[in-house]
Amino acid sequence: MEERRASGVAAGLARAIPLGVYFATLCPTVYVGDSGEMVALAHTLGVAQPTGFPLYCLLGKIATLIPLGSYAARVNALSALSLAVAGLAIYRLLARVTRPGVALAGRLTFTLGQTAWSPAPIARTYPLTLALTAVVLDLALTCAPRPGQRRFLGAALISGFALGTHL
Length: 167
Description:
The chain is mainly α. Helices cover 69% and strands 0% of the residues. It has helices spanning 2-24, 35-44, 54-64, 71-97, 100-111, 114-117, 126-141, 150-162. Helix 1 packs parallel to helix 5 (100-111). The longest helix is centred in the middle third of the chain and has 27 residues, at 71-97. The model has no long low-confidence stretch (mean pLDDT 83).
C-alpha cells in the first residue's frame, strides 16, 4: 500500500513539475528560426518544408482555437504539452523497471535537461517527435506484437503519425 502511494505521488510530481516549468518559461510570441513559420502554418493549415509536418499543423490548428493568449503562445504551448507527454512516457518506461523515485529522477533529468527543455517553450516540431517516439516505445514494450491487440495497434497508428513529424 505504501509503495503504491509513493508511486502515485511520484507520478503526480512527474506531471506537475515539468509542465509548471515549461509554462513558466513559455515564449509569449514568435521566436527566432522556424518558430514563426510553424505558428503561421498552424494558423493557416499551410504546408511546410518536407515532410510538411501534417500532424503538427493539425494539432497546432486545434491549439489556435483555444481562446487564451496570442496564436504564437497557443502553438508554443503545444510544444510544452508534447514534451510533457514525452516525459510521462519515459516515466512509465522507467517505472516498470525501477522504483518510483528513480523513475521520477529520470523523467526530470530528461524533461528539464538542455536538449529537451530548449524547444519546449517555442513552436518547434522536435517536442512532438519526442512525444510520439516515447509513446510508441512505451506501447511497444508493453505488448506482444499480435494482430488485434489494442496497444500494438496503437503503437502502429502512432508510428504512422510520427512518419510525418520529422525527417
